[in-house]
Design a protein that fits this description.
By secondary structure, the protein is mostly beta strands. It has one domain (33-230). Helices cover 0% and strands 54% of the residues. The chain has no helices and 16 strands.
Length: 233
């Protein structure tokens, strides 16, 4: 993975809140509301992981695990930058994972977060999600005495809760699918109300020169905004 200058989740992650409306709602509907019932121009958020975040790669040699991720970012309406700090990263086979130019066990991730409309899991009820657009990330993992360079880029879709209530505390979930490398969330509604399916999602390559493969992030993060906001579902 590219200095998982991303991924929580991290998405991950990250935290964010936005107004989610039904697929038939107007694209001009606000993304989120403050206590006065208006849409703030921008707000900052911080967060930390509630569980160990993992990255699985289709037919990959190992699973990357990071027990602690610190998140910070700022949203201007529905879009804004995020910074992730993945700490104490290892693999399920042992060994340490480190971002290029970072201290041992640390991976820094960067990218853009986009508030979108989504459904809650496999149900029909509408909810909110953050689409993380991950910058090209590089990091190395030492596995069984051999060093591997991982490159990661692409998109990760993570659900956000609660909705329909003013709050400063939010939960962000990035989930994997049933199979290794399959993401749990792959579809969302854009601002025009069109259902979009992410074409490739998050892609990862183990060692330079090898093909990119599907990958999935799994983790949960708690986030706090600088003011009370409401996600409208």
């Amino acid at each position: 993975m590219h200095r998982p200058k991303l991924l929580a989740c991290a998405l991950m992650a990250v935290s964010a809140v936005g107004v989610v409306v039904s697929a038939s709602a107007l694209a001009s509907s606000p993304a989120f509301l403050d206590a006065a019932g208006t849409e703030p121009a921008a707000f900052k958020f911080t967060g930390h992981t509630a569980t160990t975040t993992t990255l699985q790669i289709l037919e990959g040699f190992a699973e990357t695990k990071c027990p602690e991720i610190l998140i910070e970012g700022e949203l201007t309406f529905r879009l804004g930058p995020f910074h992730l700090h993945w700490h104490r990263c290892t693999t399920n086979l042992g060994g340490t994972c480190t971002g290029l130019g970072d201290e041992s066990g640390l991976i820094l991730a960067l990218g853009t977060a986009h508030l979108v409309r989504d459904k809650l899991g496999s149900g029909a009820e509408l909810g909110a999600a953050i689409l993380f657009l991950v910058e090209h990330l590089h990091f190395t993992c030492v596995v069984l005495g051999s060093e591997h360079l991982l490159l990661v880029l692409g998109e990760v879709l993570c659900l956000v809760a609660p909705t329909n209530a003013l709050a400063k505390q939010f939960t962000l979930k990035c989930e994997k699918g049933a199979k290794v490398g399959d993401p749990g969330e792959t579809m969302y509604w854009n601002e025009a109300g069109t259902l979009v399916e992410i074409p490739e999602g998050l892609l990862a390559s183990e060692d330079e020169g090898t093909a990119y493969k599907m990958s999935a992030e799994n983790g949960k993060a708690d986030a706090e905004t600088t003011e009370n906001v409401e996600i409208m579902a």
